[in-house]
Design goal:
Rossmann fold; 5-stranded mixed sheet; PTS_EIIB_2/3; transport; carbohydrate:proton symporter activity; 22 helices; alpha/beta; PTS family porter fructose-specific component IIB; 650 residues; phosphoprotein
Length: 650
């Protein structure tokens, strides 16, 4: 049996991206802290990596990063941090630190749940704010509704391949297979309202809330109050069940548990909540119809304003409640046969992740290797209508980056509405292009918005990059940093536009293995001779003296057997990096007091406009990554070392 330092559960409304991005972020943060972790994910494929009772019992702490219900009562008595899923993506390190700290709250439950899954009251949950309960329950409803909407919408849209009226038996376009597709798809879409209501009720009042939620959801659907009615009905169902649980609490569970769960709660709950839903259905229908009419009217009268509103909502929280508000409205109109509104929503949701890809293309040096990789992956995620990939980029500088995303999303939506583009499918991104009435134009508009946001993001990243580059990077201990910091304090020149990564000045010919040396000075002497033999310098003795001078000012020994000696002299032609792997270790003053067997040396011309500071600081940063050091130590030849530096500087 494996014991874990931390156990966690992640889940999001869609169960597609947030869930697994949070899982990855928590696992990486735990790995960096040398902690073991197991993350249970609640995605569209169901619950994966389920936590066992023993794993929970033996864990030091629990993290819930979820927008949906993940059954927190399993964790009674444990240190528990409960946050929204986006928090784990943007701040996983702090979450782990908080969970393990003495400040972490202990999860408590009052009466716990009985075997029939009832909840005695909302107070039996962890002491959450009303806002948090409303949010998580709404997202629980949305997460269960979305697969039906996507399946139904796509099948309905595919039926139009045979003609817009191909499902109408009275039309000349009628096709039996198209009729079947349309019927199946429409039935799935019709389930949107009752499923939304049911799982809102289930998140708060468990199984009984689910049953009553289905009933009031059907009343809302038949009464025409749509998804607004479903949302209100779901909370009515939950409140009615919670009220009945309090009223019937005097009945002892031992004798009446089965009667309550099978008979009393369903019958009294459906009756009470159903009557309330019947009463509010008329005003809710008027509100729902009025809102839809206003939005449909804006498509024709003020497409500019509508596009800006939809763009800002879609890019405000990347799959959160504001984004979902726009998406739910689009699906509701889609069910009514309005395909214009969803076109703008989809464009606004696709643009942000694509924008991150363009941003890293426009300004590679301003982003880390991990950010560049994420940006490239977002080309794929964005193309399939998965907005969540933009979250890590938004989290780095939300006050600047989120408005930049909003600009691009708004441009894409506005252009889409002006051109009357129709998208009959509620999801799928570019996969459903055959169903779009003007597919090429739609893609062009999305790319225009994405590029606009990408340019803004790249400019913001450049500003941050320049600001950081003006700061003094520290890569020596306090007792060894006097001269190094003096060198770094001279970094006042303009940012260098060319590639100043260490890999740019390294070649396979400048790497030597199994070098035999008797000590530090012998290594430095051999470096000088090696450089002259390779034609990198014209005076090996002068460079050797500069090496010695540098060591007298402050040791260049690092730790884990690595030293980074460097020399700056007029006899050096251009900046170059050399790497020696010693056959035997030599003594060198290092941070950890251990001998050295790996030498990373820099040759710097007398006039280099501060470029060597970039090489040194970038190399020092690489040496903070244990995986890089391990790969460097395991390299068996010059080609492997060269490829390693290229990999970490791409």
């Amino acid at each position: 049996m494996t014991n874990y330092d931390i156990v966690a559960a992640t889940g999001c409304a869609t169960g597609i991206a947030h869930t697994f991005m949070a899982e990855e972020a928590l696992e990486q943060a735990a790995k960096n802290k040398h902690l073991s972790i197991k993350v249970e994910t609640h995605g569209q494929a169901g619950i994966e990596h389920s936590l066992t009772s023993n794993e929970i019992k033996n864990a030091k702490a629990v993290i819930i990063a979820s927008d949906i219900d993940v059954d927190p009562d399993r964790f009674v008595g444990k240190k528990l941090v409960n946050v929204k899923v986006a928090k784990a993506i943007s701040d996983s390190d702090k979450l782990i630190e908080l969970a393990l700290s003495d400040n972490a709250p202990i999860h408590e439950s009052s009466n716990t749940r009985s075997n029939d899954d009832e909840i005695q009251s909302s107070n039996s949950e962890e002491k959450k704010s009303i806002g948090n309960i409303i949010y998580t329950s709404l997202m629980n409803g949305v997460s269960h509704m979305l697969p039906l909407v996507v399946a139904g919408g796509v099948l309905t849209a595919v039926s139009f391949f045979w003609g817009i009226y191909s499902a109408d038996p009275k039309s000349d376009q009628f096709n039996q297979f198209a009729y079947m597709l349309n019927t199946v798809g429409g039935t799935a879409m019709d389930l949107m309202v009752p499923v939304l209501a049911a799982y809102i009720g289930e998140a708060i009042a468990k199984r009984s809330g689910l049953v009553v939620g289905f009933a009031v959801g059907m009343i809302a659907f038949n009464g025409g109050s749509g998804f607004l009615g479903a949302i209100v009905g779901g909370y009515i169902a939950a409140l009615v069940i919670l009220g009945l649980q309090k009223i019937l609490k005097p009945l002892p569970d031992k004798q009446f548990r089965g009667l309550k769960s099978i008979f009393l709660y369903p019958v009294l709950g459906v009756f009470t909540a159903g009557m309330l839903m019947m009463l509010i259905n008329v005003p809710m229908k008027a509100l729902n119809t009025g809102m839809m009419d206003v939005l449909k009217g804006m498509e024709n009268t003020t497409p500019l304003l509508l596009g800006i509103i939809i763009g800002c909502l879609s890019a405000a929280d990347f799959g959160g409640p504001l984004n979902k508000a726009a998406y739910l409205t689009g699906t509701a109109l889609l069910a009514q046969g309005n395909y214009f509104f969803m076109a703008g929503v989809s464009a606004a949701c696709i643009a942000p992740p694509l924008a991150t890809g363009f941003a890293v293309l426009f300004n590679k040096k301003a982003y880390s290797k991990e950010e560049r990789s994420a940006g490239y992956v977002n080309f794929l995620l964005g193309s399939t209508h998965i907005t969540e990939g933009a979250i890590p980029f938004a989290a780095t500088n939300p006050l600047m980056n989120i408005p930049a995303f909003m600009v691009g999303s708004s441009i894409a939506a506005v252009l889409t509405y002006f051109s009357k583009i129709q998208v009959p499918a509620p999801h799928g991104g570019f996969i459903v292009l055959p169903l779009v009435n003007h597919p090429i134009l739609w893609v062009v508009y999305i790319l225009i918005g994405s590029v606009a946001s990408g340019i803004l993001l790249a400019m913001i990243a450049e500003h941050s990059y320049r600001k950081k580059s003006q700061q003094q990077p520290e890569f020596t201990e306090t007792n060894n940093n006097n001269v190094e910091n003096q060198e770094l304090s001279d970094q006042n020149s303009a940012a260098i536009e060319k590639d100043n990564s260490p890999a740019s000045i390294l070649s396979v010919n400048n790497i030597a293995f199994d070098v035999t040396a008797t000590g530090r000075n012998d290594v430095l002497h051999q470096l000088s001779t090696f450089a002259e033999d390779k034609g990198l310098i014209t005076n090996s003795q002068a460079v050797y003296q500069k090496y010695l001078q540098r060591e007298q000012e402050g040791s260049t020994g690092m730790e884990q057997g690595i030293a980074i000696p460097h020399a700056q002299d007029s006899s050096i032609k251009t900046s170059k990096m050399m790497i020696f792997r010693l056959k035997n270790e030599v003594e060198w003053k290092t941070f950890d007091g251990k001998p050295v067997n790996t030498i990373i040396s820099f040759l710097i011309p007398e006039e280099d406009d501060g470029a060597h500071l970039n090489y040194l600081s970038d190399t020092a940063k690489l040496l903070t990554h244990q995986d890089f050091i391990q790969k460097l130590k395991n390299a068996n030849n010059a080609d492997e070392v060269y490829d390693l530096f290229k990999e970490y500087n791409e």
